[in-house]
Amino acid sequence: MDSFIVTGAGSGLGREIALLLAKEGWDVLLAGRTLDKLLLVKEEIKASGGSAAALQLDVANPESLQEKLERALEGKNVRGLVNNAGVGHFGPFRKMDNAQIFELFQVNALGTIYMTKAVLPYLQQAESCYVVNIISTAGLRGKANESVYAASKFAVRGFTESLQKEYEGSGIKFTAAYMGGMDTPFWEGSEHVADSSKFMLPLDVARRIVEGLGEKEIIIERQK
Ligand SMILES: NC(=O)c1ccc[n+]([C@@H]2O[C@H](COP(=O)([O-])OP(=O)(O)OC[C@H]3O[C@@H](n4cnc5c(N)ncnc54)[C@H](OP(=O)(O)O)[C@@H]3O)[C@@H](O)[C@H]2O)c1
């Protein structure tokens, strides 16, 4: 059975992508910081006859993720990675503190880069495989009160577009996925978006992403 790794798979968009991939017959490695959330998703997949494993890791910690992935991926035929884990800090730029700025780049930008670097050697053993980077429409255009979040997502856009060129003609397809607001735990306790209930359902976004595996760019704008 071929395996797909999904980061941030314990909630929101990552969870929906993991459930859909499992339904399509992939073995899914559910990665994220909070093991309890990953185990619930794993149980859901197993209960519907799918295959999954949970791996607690911090995408912002390159040394430990390398070691954990080595152990978890032994014997697996890895054919995909979804870099979905992400954090959001929003508000006027002058009010952003350095810890927030650091975390946005550590998780959103460096986390994606570290994970891709760690997983690429496994992907290169497969004939055709996928890396999907979950960005945001904040990676397409800047927005007021989203300055550093947008900067971190623009970084992922540059990374993805560059790898598309570098790996052109190889079996590895890199997808840049840009989506508008989704109704997920991302907005819990946020003053920037007090009510996310009118946003897109993460399941709808996940469907489009899973259908679009291999496409260079997927843009899912917010429904009005
Ligand atoms: N919601 C939106 O409106 C929206 C719009 C456009 C793009 N996005 C992007 O979509 C992605 C998924 O977000 P979501 O909306 O589904 O929110 P979410 O439910 O908060 O999911 C984010 C996931 O990332 C995990 N995560 C955070 N930091 C991590 C780290 N250092 N290492 C490993 N896992 C980590 C979280 O797990 P733990 O809690 O266990 O850390 C969580 O499960 C993010 O990249 C976000 O930027 C969201």
Summarize the structure.
The chain has 224 residues and is of the alpha/beta class. The chain is built from 6 helices and 7 strands.
Describe this structure in words.
The chain has about 220 residues and is an alpha/beta fold. It has a single domain (about 1-220), classed as Rossmann fold (3-Layer(aba) Sandwich). It is about 40% helix and about 20% strand. The chain has six helices and seven strands; from the N terminus they run βαβαβαβαβαβαβ. It has helices at about 10-25, 35-45, 60-75, 100-125, 145-165, 200-210, and strands at about 1-5, 25-30, 50-55, 75-85, 130-135, 170-180, 215-220. It has a seven-stranded parallel sheet with strand order 3-2-1-4-5-6-7, with helices on both faces. Helix 4 (about 100-125) packs parallel to helix 5. The protein is globular and about 50 Å long. The mean pLDDT is about 95. NADP nicotinamide-adenine-dinucleotide phosphate binds near residues 11, 12, 59, 85 and 134.
